[in-house]
Amino acid sequence: MRIPIIAGNWKMNKNKKDTKKFIEDFEALIGDTEVEVVICPPFTSLDSASQMLKNSSVKLGAQNMSWEDHGAFTGEVSPEMLLEQQVEFVIIGHSERRQIFSETDDRINKKVLKALEKELRPILCVGETLEEREGEKAFEVVKNQLVQGLKNISGEDASKVVVAYEPVWAIGTGKTATPEDANEMAAFIRNTIKELYTEEISEEMIIQYGGSVKPGNVEEIMNQTDIDGALVGGASLEAKDFIEIVNF
Ligand code: PEP
């Protein structure tokens, strides 16, 4: 049975004070949940967050990392540095990283490989642009991102990867894919994993949907057969909204 993972991607929001406030508010609201909950604050808040979450079921994720261990890589953060902050998940290949920071599939693959080597669980983001969807290229684009992103990754490691399907046109726009369209792509992703690995691995894989998930639409999305979680941006910034998503 797949246990859903709901992850909040705070992007470049919240300083340490805001992080502390969110965690205090969220911890006061969260009870027993049937899902795994992850928050992904900016690097500068990871230390405070990890101290506050020591005895919590809420897990920590980072929004990016380097594929290198250490050295002359100005501005980068290594996997060991994340592990030191009790980080367990790392978002890799978010569309903002791909588009604004020109991350290529090759670099994304290096990061996924490195994360797995260090026993961090990568949340590998894939998804098509509006132009690609309108040009009927969505499935081809997503398949290519998966094949490239998972290059040289063994079956054993592949089952630890979380795949987040995030259509670029739905991120931060208020537009959501219909639950049926999102599920169609999630099923396609699962089938691609089956082709690349085995049916067993494809059935174990957690596939999230991301793109304007909010309290009002999460239930319908989570009720889809092939969607096992959500990667949430804007609606993960307020504890009162994120708790509604977690308790869908
Ligand atoms: C995201 O940042 O991954 C995301 C899905 O953002 P939003 O929920 O704001 O669309």
TrEMBL record:
Q: Which domain of life is it from?
A: Bacteria
Q: Which UniProt keywords apply?
A: Cytoplasm, Gluconeogenesis, Glycolysis, Isomerase
Its annotated compartments are:
Cytoplasm
The entry's active site is 94, 166
Would I find NAD among this entry's keywords?
no
Secretion signal span: none
Q: What is this protein called?
A: Triosephosphate isomerase
